[in-house]
């Protein structure tokens, strides 16, 4: 289902075993889902937020940064393709058209 969403949104296989970007993006998204599902001690004891006793903030920041870096790269590649006259008309193309 993750790959199906990737095909719908950006016309790209995100779970292709030969694609390094795809596997990195998939792993980052799995990490984000995992970290958001963990109970966080800081929710009960807010004064511990600065300490991040479970390391959830650090891991979330790492995985979110990786996911955003890869998504940004995909968007930049698509913008270059659009400048070259190549269109696919998927969700990303619609978003990029709306930007302008």
Automatic annotation (TrEMBL):
Top-level taxon of origin: Eukaryota
Sorted UniProt keywords: Iron, Metal-binding
Classification via Pfam families: p450
Gene3D superfamilies according to UniProt: Cytochrome P450
Gene Ontology MF annotations: metal ion binding
InterPro entries noted in UniProt: Cyt_P450, Cyt_P450_sf
PANTHER family membership: CYTOCHROME P450 76A2-LIKE ISOFORM X1 (PTHR47950:SF14), CYTOCHROME P450, FAMILY 76, SUBFAMILY C, POLYPEPTIDE 5-RELATED (PTHR47950)
Family affiliation: Belongs to the cytochrome P450 family.
Name of the featured protein: Cytochrome P450 76AD1-like protein
């Amino acid at each position: 289902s993750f790959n199906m969403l990737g095909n719908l949104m950006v016309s790209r296989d995100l779970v292709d075993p030969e694609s390094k970007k795809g596997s990195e993006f998939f792993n980052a998204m799995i990490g984000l889902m995992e970290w958001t599902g963990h109970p966080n001690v800081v929710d009960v004891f807010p004064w511990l937020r600065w300490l991040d006793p479970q390391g959830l903030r650090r891991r979330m920041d790492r995985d979110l940064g990786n996911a955003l870096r890869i998504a940004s790269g995909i968007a930049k590649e698509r913008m270059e393709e659009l400048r070259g006259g190549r269109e696919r008309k998927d969700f990303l193309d619609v978003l990029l058209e709306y930007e302008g």
